[in-house]
Amino acid sequence: MQCKSCHAELAKHAKVCPKCGAKAKKQAFTNTKVIAIFGVCLTFIGGLLPFVQDIDPTNNVVKINTDSIEVAYSFMNIQQIAYWYLFMLALVVSIVLIAIKKEKLSIISTSVAAVIFGVAFFASPYCEYVGRTKPFKLHNLTDLLADPQVYAIGIGVYVIIIGVIIAIAGCFFDVLKYFKREIKVDPRYLSNSMNKNIWVKIKTYRWFYLMFLPVLIFVLLFNYWPMLGVRFAFTDYIITNPHYVGIKHFAAMATKDVFFWNAFRNTIILSVTKLLLNTGAAVVISLLLNEISNLTFKKTVQTIVYLPHFMSWVVVASLFKLILSPDASGLVNSILVKMHVFATFNDVPFYLGDTRYWQATFFVINIWKDTGWGTILFLATLSGISPELYEAAQIDGANRWSRMKFITIPALMNTIITVFILNLAKVMKIFESVFVLQNDAVDPVANVIQTYIYQKTFEAGTVNYGYTTAVGLFNSLIGVVLVLGCDFASKKVRGRGIV
């Protein structure tokens, strides 16, 4: 925040400028990127909702298996599905243009998305079944709306219109020009990143962009292209003929599927506890190693701690199943029997096959495997702390604990927060470590959302890819909310985040 009179930097909650004595005014919200991106996202959500809805429950009801589904029409069951992909492409381009400060071009791409929606609404036929092999009747939405007693405009139309208006309104403000005009500083003294045109930047760093191109292509193909399948979350999709059912799957998920909520609870418990334990263990080990002066011993411990990170989860699972075996071949139980903790091998539990011990065993295995990676990151941060700080503190009489408390830990906090937020993004994606360690006996405490999706997709008798896509979409949205919430809390507490 800056003083309006002398342009001096002010503290976040300052009320008076210490330089000129002027009263500090709260800075108005000028970053309209958030508003524009919100409008684009709202437009995308509208594309998933019905454009025309059957309001007569006795009319045109389609039977899907044993369920009666009211007919609705949207991008999900348009005959020319290319409209959906063009609509999505225009919205993605809008977000990219907003991110690179090309708001005026973003207005054009958002308008193109609106035009595509208009053409799809007025000129394209829709079918009750999307599949080409067994199409139901083809309908034109304007013809359907001619009978207002049966059909009405769906909520998707209103959401798209509101989203387009918000996105275009947000893009009308040029954030960079407003900033330059407000602080009245010669643009030559602003950072190069604010002065250079985007094409100048690309030309300057063209070889770096060329090296990054294979990575970009890989990410687009394997991360972003599958996102187009989100449309199936709103359909009954079994290989062919995906019928648009609106939010039926989400409603069933919330009200009928007890196995989903059990998997959701296990996901939160396992992933959050794993995140806290792994981060805490890495911090403790890095602090202890930082206090060791013997370099040979220090490097040896680092190597031992870091090596398990390179082992695959399949190998780790096989190793621990052998070590924790309940018979005489199990190392742990053999030691416990010899120490007379258990009388015989018949009394020892199988820690990976008992619901009482499975979660604790899972956490121990995860700490053993993943702590080394975090330890290396934290040690790299600790190596950057100036030794002069420790020397000055030692001269002032600070003992080892005081130096760790007032120098080491504060210097480590930024890295801890960054690692925590980055790992929080993967909280809802926990799969491999659980999949290789679980079995039917511990399913009530070990089944997570990703393994639940796997079971529903590949092991269930009747596969409904629409339902599993809906579960995956819900899972991803929860992950995004967790990351943004943690980043928001970091900005409030520390004044900055990473997103």
TrEMBL record:
Q: Which residues form the ABC transmembrane type-1 domain?
A: 264-486
Q: Where are the transmembrane segments?
A: 34-52, 81-100, 112-131, 151-176, 207-225, 268-292, 304-324, 357-385, 406-425, 465-486
Q: Which family does it belong to?
A: Belongs to the binding-protein-dependent transport system permease family.
Cell location: Cell membrane
How is this protein situated with respect to the membrane?
Answer: Multi-pass membrane protein
Q: Which UniProt keywords apply?
A: Cell membrane, Membrane, Transmembrane, Transmembrane helix, Transport
Q: Which GO terms describe its cellular component?
A: plasma membrane
Gene3D superfamilies for the chain: MetI-like (1.10.3720.10)
Organism domain of life: Bacteria
Q: Which CDD domains match?
A: TM_PBP2
Query: Where is the organism placed in the taxonomic lineage, from the top?
Result: Bacteria, Bacillati, Bacillota, Clostridia, Lachnospirales
From the UniProt record, give one GO term of the biological process aspect: transmembrane transport
Protein name as annotated: Putative aldouronate transport system permease protein
| InterPro entries xref list | ABC_transporter_permease, MetI-like, MetI-like_sf
